[in-house]
Amino acid sequence: MNNGRFPISLHILTLMASSAGELLSSDYIAGSININPVLVRKEISNLRNFGLIESKEGKNGGATLAKSADKIRLSEVYHAVQQASLLGNSKNKPNPDCPIGKQINLHLDHLYEDIEGALLHRLEKMSLADFLRQFQ
Amino acid sequence: MNNGRFPISLHILTLMASSAGELLSSDYIAGSININPVLVRKEISNLRNFGLIESKEGKNGGATLAKSADKIRLSEVYHAVQQASLLGNSKNKPNPDCPIGKQINLHLDHLYEDIEGALLHRLEKMSLADFLRQFQ
DNA sequence: CATTCTGTAATTGACTTTATTACAGTACAA
DNA sequence: TTGTACTGTAATAAAGTCAATTACAGAATG
């Protein structure tokens, strides 16, 4: 994964899991993560599109989990923030006249798929509730 | 992994494995990958530090594998290019006054280590020779 | 000793990510 | 019904990252 969005999204969800039911404001969340509130709202918007978060506009509004923390797998969080490939995106444009260059992206892609499968298998095993449980 | 260095290093090593014994110039390699020769030399320099490549300066110089392709595990390549953490580096500076923020980097790091372990396990199983064997 | 390489530093440029500004719209509460 | 406190989102600016490029010293060869 290429971005810092995974930790941000997981932080957001962890905060919500730790205060289940309450609506948290983007300003409060941004204060905990120490980033800009607009970025928090963007991530919340994304997580909402993936059915992990519900939010409420207006005064006393905010966001909360859309389902209980033990129903949220970390693999869902991964999918929600995942855009590019795990290990360096195959955006390289190798020389098609070279016998190695011509084929390497195909084989790299296979390798990445294999590895990403292993990664997802791990993330699948841990729920947000499991993750929160580590905090004391 | 955050960078495009893994595919570049693997490409370099694959070229060398496919023409075992020969010294390849950074210009030739750069032509196959379609990147700048200086970047190739930087990667070669790094791979040499990890004992995967030997190089020779001067006219008719170049680089070649330091050991046979079936002795090189892809996990070694990963280690050679790995600097930052796999999933978004914990460069966030969460608020230490927040009970979640205070602890989250620790738990994120544990999670990353766990996942990286799974990834390395996969890469450990494949040698450079295995990777090259896929090419026909 | 000219040539062809590596090795490496320094700079520039392209791109990506995050912060910031701005503002419309929504819900609540006095 | 109006002020306030929020979300949602777009647009822009600032910061950071990564690769390309330039430059050049040094090594090996013929």
Give an overview in words:
- Chains A, B: This is BadM/Rrf2 family transcriptional regulator.
- Chains A, B: InterPro entries: Tscrpt_reg_Rrf2, WH-like_DNA-bd_sf, WH_DNA-bd_sf.
- Chains A, B: GO terms for molecular function: DNA-binding transcription factor activity.
- The structure is a homodimer of 136-residue chains.
- The first copy, chain A, has 136 residues and is mainly alpha-helical.
- Chain A has a domain at 5-86 and 126-133: Arc Repressor Mutant, subunit A (Orthogonal Bundle).
- The first copy, chain A, is 56% helix and 6% strand.
- Chain A contains 6 helices and 2 strands.
- The first copy, chain A, has helices at 5-18, 26-33, 37-49, 74-81, 99-125, 128-133, and strands at 53-56, 62-65.
- Chain A has a two-stranded antiparallel sheet with strand order 1-2.
- In chain A, β1 and β2 (62-65) form a beta hairpin.
- The longest helix of chain A is centred in the last third of the chain and has 27 residues, at 99-125.
- The radius of gyration of chain A is 18 Å and the shape is elongated.
- Chain A starts with a helix and ends with a helix.
- The interface between A and B is large, with 50 and 50 residues.
- The structure holds a DNA duplex (30 and 30 nucleotides).
